[in-house]
Amino acid sequence: LNYQTARFMTSAPTLGQCPADQGREVAFAGRSNAGKSSAINTLSRQKALARTSRTPGRTQLINFFSLAGDEACRLVDLPGYGYAKVPEAVKREWQRHLADYLQRRGSLQGVVLLMDVRHPLSEFDEMMLGWADEQDMPVHILLTKADKLKPGAAKSALAKVRSQLREWEDLVSIQLFSSLKRQGLETLEARLDAWLLDTAEA
Ligand code: GDP
After folding, report:
1. pLDDT digit string (tens) for 56-103?
2. Measured in angstroms, how far is the CA atom of residue 20 from the centroid of ligand 1?
3. At what angle are helices 36-44 and 185-196 packed, to 10 degrees?
4. Is 145 in the pocket of ligand 1 (CB under 6 A)?
5. HEC profile for the chain?
C-alpha cells in the first residue's frame, strides 16, 4: 500500500460516532509523547497529517485516515494516553472508550503500539496488551525514538522487551523505529500491508 495516500476522513469522540465498521483498519496507540503523531506523519510522508502534541493529552478524539482513496482501508489514530495533568475521571473515560473500541470494532485487524524505547512497557502498555490478548488481537510494537540510543543499546532494549513479552510471541511482534532517522519504516509498512491487504502474499 502507498501510505502517502493517507487522508484525514473524520474524528469521532466515541465509538458510536466512528465510520461504518466495514473493510479493514489498523489502529495506532500509545502513551502521550511516545511519538505516535510523528510516526503517522513519517509513514504518510506528510508533515502534519497527525498533529504532533504541543499540548500532550489534549486530543481525545479517535482520528480516521483513509488509504488510496478507499474509505474501507483505514489507519486510526487513537487518543494519546496518560498525560499527568488529565484528571483521573477523564483517564477512566478514555480507558473505557479504548477498551470498547478494541473489543467491538470488527474491522480492526491489528494495533500498532508505540513505546519510547527508553521507557517501554508502561502501565498503559500492559493494559493495552491485556485487552489485545483477551481479543486475540495482534499487536505490533514500535520502540520509538531509537535514535536516542546508541545502536548497541537500542538492540539490547529490543531484546529485553522481546524476552519480557515471550509469553505473547504468537500475538506480538516488535521492532525499533525512529521517525527522525526514518528507521524501521519498511518493516512497519510490511506489517501494515499484511493486515490491510486482503491477500496472503503481503
Ligand atoms: P505523541 O504524543 O505520541 O503523538 O508524540 P509526538 O509524535 O508528538 O512526539 C513527542 C515528542 O517526541 C516530540 O517532541 C517529537 O519531536 C519527539 N519525537 C518523536 N519521534 C521521534 C524520533 O524518532 N526521534 C526523536 N529524537 N524524537 C522524536
Report:
1. 545 568 899 999 999 999 999 998 876 666 778 877 887 888 888 999
2. 31
3. 80
4. yes
5. CCHHHCEEEEEECCHHHCCCCCCEEEEEEEECCCCHHHHHHHHHCCCCCCCCCCCCCCCCCEEEEEECCEEEEEEEECCCECCCCCCHHHHHHHHHHHHHHHHHCCCEEEEEEEEECCCCCCHHHHHHHHHHHHHCCCEEEEEECHHHCCHHHHHHHHHHHHHHCHHHCCCEEEEECECCCCECHHHHHHHHHHHHCCCCCC
- Complex ipTM, two decimals? 0.99
Q: Which atom of ligand 1 is nearest to the CA of 181?
A: 23
Q: Domains of the chain (ranges plus CATH)?
A: 3-196 (3.40.50.300)
Cβ of residue 63 lying under 6 Å from some atom of ligand 1:
no
Separation of CA 139 and ligand 1 centre (Å): 21
14-58 pLDDT, tens per residue? 778 899 999 999 999 999 899 999 999 999 999 989 876 555 545
